[in-house]
Structures are given as structure tokens and as C-alpha cells.
Amino acid sequence: MNSIHQTIIELLETRYARINGEAFIKDDPVSIPHLFTKKEDIEIAGFLAATISWGNRKMIIRNSRQLMNLMDDAPFDFILNVGQKDFNRFSDFCHRTFNGTDAVYFMKSLRNIYKNHGGLEPCFCSNASSPLIPLQRGTILSIKSPPKGGHKRNLQNKIFYSINHFRNIFLELPHEKRTEKHISSPALNSACKRLNMFLRWMVRKDRHGIDFGIWKSIKPYELVCPLDVHSARSARYLGLLKRKQNDWHAAVELTEALKKFDPDDPVKYDVALFGLDKEAKNTRK
Questions:
Q1: DSSP states of the chain
Q2: Residue 233: C-alpha distances to residues 13, 16, 236, 246, 282 (Å)
Q3: Residue 197 has pLDDT above 70, yes or no
Q4: How far apart are CA 285 and CA 283, in angstroms?
Q5: pTM of the model
Q6: Which pLDDT score is estimated for 155?
Q7: 29, 50 in Cβ contact below 8 A?
Q8: What are the angstrom distances between the C-alpha of 56 and each of 28, 170, 223?
Q9: What is the pLDDT of residues 51-84, one digit of tens each?
Q10: Rounded distance, CA 52 to CA 94, Å?
Q11: Which one, of 41, 38, 42, 66, lies nearest residue 52 by Cα?
Q12: Which of 43, 89, 190, 273 is most buried per CB count within 10 Å?
């Protein structure tokens, strides 16, 4: 490892150790699943909090907490026993472009997943290695070719198929077209930041306790780094990311770069990259 790489890894490790802990949890959407101890409650709370995780973090936490209240602060029990009349309580929910229509469908789909598909974890893991995933209209998932002149990476990795397999199950019930935008797809070249963050929460487990490590069907080294404006900005500044667009190609490129520092757990540096950009932003004020 050359001196530049050594400097970068020392910086990331320092920020990771500084940020990763209870102080981070309380001001982050991951605080929502940390309200619970049962596996299924953690999954459902984490999935919903991750789904609306864009915009101001205080607003995300407040609105995620509202969703938990609407589920009587017992997500799994609510999902198992929800009736048609219970869906009405979500009709007025709104977080940016995620509205009551979307919230109602999410409740119906989660009910379908836990009653007919064995829960969230199997939906991300079944057929995850299948090269062909049919869409609702009978088309086949594919991804655009790597950028011209770019290095060909394993863009269609396990998480690529896991997310798309889950997305097909999640959207198998009748739904409005608008709701589809809230479940991203790497096959459409989305970075899938929120789904990758949710998977990080469920799969990784570290001594500081941010991530839960309650899913065993996916390994930490198989994860793809959540990519948003903050982590992308830090990654480009450090020379870990060359691609200009924040898409699936970029998420895979960053993950491959981070594997040089920790091949077994590359996405541990997600919080470090996020924190670096936040620190830089505060310094500029």
C-alpha cells in the first residue's frame, strides 16, 4: 500500500472511530429501528425510515417516528393484523414526495411480504444469483453498459440481483405508478442509496452498535456502499471515485475502491465519508 493510500485509510479509520457510536445514532434515521429489539420490528422500522431518508435529518426522524406512531409503535404486530380500515390512518401522511397513497401501499406490500413471502430478509436473498429477473410487464432487467473508456466492473453483483428481486416482490400488488419511484432499481442505474443503507443496517454489525447485523444471508463484503451527495463528495475529494454521476456505476466503483482498505467490510467507511463532508461543510460556514 503506497503512502497516499495509507494516508487515506488512516483518515477514514480515524473518522470512523470518531463518528461511529451512540452520538451518531441519536441524530440519524438509524435511531428509528434502534427503538426496537424484535428482529421483525427492527426490519420494518429500518425499511420505512430508510425509504424516506432524504432531506433534512430532523424531518426524516420526526416523520419516521410518526409512521411508528401510526403503527401503534409495534410495527410487526401491526403489519400482521392490519385491516382495511387501519390503512386509512396513513392517508394524510406526507414526507416530501412520499405521500399517503405511497404509505398505504407500503403497508399493504409489507403485509403481503410477511404473510406470503416469509419476511423482508428472504425477499432480498431468494434468487439473488439469478441472471434474469422478470419485471411485471414481462421485460428483463438490464443495466446500461459501463461508461465509455471506463473499467468494466462486476456491476451485476449479488446486491444488484437482491435489490431487483425484492423490488419485483414489493411491487407485485396493484399500485399506482408514482409509488415505484420510492423503490429504486440498480437495473435502472440508480445508486439505490436508501436500499443500500437499509441493507448496511441489517447486515453489518460492529462494536459501536450502529448497524444491527441481524441478517446472515448476506455478508458484509457483498454489500454496496450507500452513495449520496455527502459520501460522493468526500470520495471524489479523496480520489476514491472518478465517475461524475451518482449512479449504480459510481456506487460499485466506490465500493471496489474501499475494498482495497477493508475487503471484508468495505461499507464500514460509509459513515466516515458522510462525516468528512459534514465536517468540511461546517468548517466552510
A1: --HHHHHHHHHHHHHHHHHSSHHHHHTSGGGTGGG--SHHHHHHHHHHHHHT--S-HHHHHHHHHHHHHHTTT-HHHHHHH--GGGGGGGTT--BTTB-HHHHHHHHHHHHHHHHHSS-HHHHHHTTTT-S--B-TTS-B---PPPPTTPPP---S-HHHHHHHHHHHHHT-S---GGGGGGS--GGGTB--HHHHHHHHHHH-B-TT-SSB----SS-GGG------HHHHHHHHHTTS---SS-BHHHHHHHHHHHHTT-TT-GGGGHHHHHHHHHHHHHHH-
A2: 18, 17, 5, 10, 14
A3: yes
A4: 6
A5: 0.89
A6: 63
A7: yes
A8: 10, 26, 25
A9: 999 999 999 999 999 999 999 999 999 999 998 8
A10: 10
A11: 66
A12: 273
Cα 170 to its chain centre, rounded Å, is: 15
Other beta carbons within 10 angstroms of residue 176's beta carbon come to 10
For residue 190, what are the β-bridge partners? Answer: 247
C-alpha cell of 224? 454496496
Cell numbers found for residue 144: 446500461
What sign results for the dihedral spanned by CA atoms 169, 117, 35, 62? positive
Beta bridge mates, 95: 98
Q: Are 30 and 47 in contact (CB under 8 A)?
A: no
Say if CB 243 and CB 227 are below 8 A apart: no
Copy the grid coordinates of residue 27.
Answer: 441524530
Q: Cell triple for residue 91?
A: 392517508
| Cα within 13 Å of Cα(285), Cβ side | 6
